Amino acid sequence: MADETKTAAEIAREERKARIDKAGDAMAEKREKKANQSKAKRRAKWLVPLIVAAVALLLVLLYYFGVPHRTFSAIKFQNGSKVSVAEYEYYYKAVYNNISNTAYQYEQYYGAYYGEGAGKMMTGFDYKKTPKNQECPLTEEDTGVKLDKEVYGENPTWADFLKEYAIRQAQETNAVYDAAIKAGAKLSDEDKKGIDDQIEQLRTTAAESNYSLNAYLMANYGRGMNESLLRKIMQKQAIASAYITSEQEKITDAVTDEDILAYYEEHKSNYDQVDLRYFTIDAEAATNTDETNYTDDELAKMTADTLAEKKAEAEQLFEEVTLDNFTTAVLAYVEDDFKQYFDPSSEQYNVNYTTAENTTADLIEKNLSEDVAKWAYDESRAVGDKYMTSVEADDGCTTFIIVVMQSLPEKDDTLQPVSVRHILFALTKDEQVTDDNGNTTTETKEIRTAEEAKAEAEATLDAWVAGGAKEDDFSKLATEKSEDPGSADNGGLIEDIYTDSSYVKPFLDWAYAEGRKVGDYGVVETDYGAHIMYMSSISDKPKWQADIATAISDERSSDFYDGIVNDEGYANARVSNGLIKRVQNRIEKYAAKVVAAFAEQTADSAVTE
Questions:
Q1: Within 10 Å of residue 513's Cβ, how many Cβ atoms?
Q2: Which has fewest Cβ within 10 Å: 82, 376, 392, 505?
Q3: Is residue 41 domain-shared with residue 91, that is, in the same domain?
Q4: For 559-604, how does the pLDDT look when each residue is reduced to its tens digit (9 = 90+)?
Q5: Cβ neighbours, 10 Å, residue 71
Q6: Domain C-terminal end among 539, 566, 594
Q7: Structure pTM?
Q8: First to last CA, the chain
Q9: Of 156, 163, 173, which Cα lies nearest the Cα of 92?
Q10: 489 and 520 part of one domain
């Protein structure tokens, strides 16, 4: 009980003194404990904060140099195989760079012909936008990549496509690589050298930009990329590619004559060729122009009237026409502006406007209609038979088709492929020219006259003949001297040439001259220059057999490939959407810089022009 004789002030002073004494005792106790602490405990007290800071700094550095990206898995497969974030980003970035650069190049080359937007028209990709900011028009049929509507909605973006494409690329590369290793495949010396050369080229490019190689790779191939990982990916891709190529060659070599005949019997309509005479009459749907304002009912009536009129014309022609009078009969139904193309007495007459020669069922279906194809290949068909059908287009136009059978389906055993070697002495050469602003254009320059090209070719041919006229020597000469970039590296060899191939006429005329045999040679002049020609081989099998052999090989190769990449161990890959989302965000930032660079290049080109 407090002393009641003390004043309130005295009591307060005593309580304050008691608190001070207690605090002093506590501080003394702490000093005593500190004095009695071991050195280890005193060091730990200072080191713990330093260690925490060092670990945080280390994590930042590891992230900056991409260690987690090479460690964490973006994709995991059922067999235990993994694809790191860095490897996935490599595939993602590679396909983005490819499509954006292709769209930009197409814009530069074809923009003058098709107008602005040619690059997007031809690729579906707008290089002026980043992937997330544009819809992807490609379908699964176009690319083999399925964009699930439940995941991406009705209008998936290019970022969605790149994500799925990169996943598939990673899956297929790793699956084929594993199959190749199991089969004993190894990296060839040529592939090793090729990879070394690519790495050294990158090293040189990096040095020119004042980068170390790894810094350059990280900037251009994604965070986490370094020389070691890039080599690993390149080696994986090289082994996988070489293995598939080797297996496809084995599959092709294994196709037998019995396989070809069996396939033919099952797909006759794709290889038996027919000749047809045909003519079309169009009934176009009525539409408004800038000068008209018809109602929908009025347009519908006009369309119906036109349809009835053209149908009557088609039926009348069908009644009149025969194989013998076909050309003259259809001429009466050709519009005046086009009669010169259908009139045999005109210099502009073109029989191909009414004749389909050496055509097949799939071509008839594509160019005329499925009904015509079925009719033409019906077993009851006879020469002179005729048929009429109609096809309605999406725009409302109806086309009436009148067809007369000119020859029945049969194999063409006369069309045999040949292979030639040639050495081209060209008249011109394309050169890259860079102006003062750093813009590069292609210019075609004359390097020799036609007379000079012919003289050079003849002199080279004479020297080769004097040396024994051996094909091996010709091949070496072609690699050394030919100015045809498409065949020089292959010893001037061009394989599987047919009479209907798209080579210039003098070239084909020489290859298929009557009596031509293996070992023949000569000089041919074309618009490209002077060619030394050498007949390398003449197939003893007609084109249809070669086509079937290719079809069988393609089907078996596709089945072989699908069997590898759809293996249970690689099916239903588990994807880390969070990590892949980060990759997409990084590529979006990168893409924004690419878009800006393209815009700057376009602006510079406009100023130069």
A1: 11
A2: 505
A3: no
A4: 999 999 888 888 778 889 999 999 999 999 999 999 998 888 877 6
A5: 13
A6: 539
A7: 0.69
A8: 105
A9: 163
A10: yes
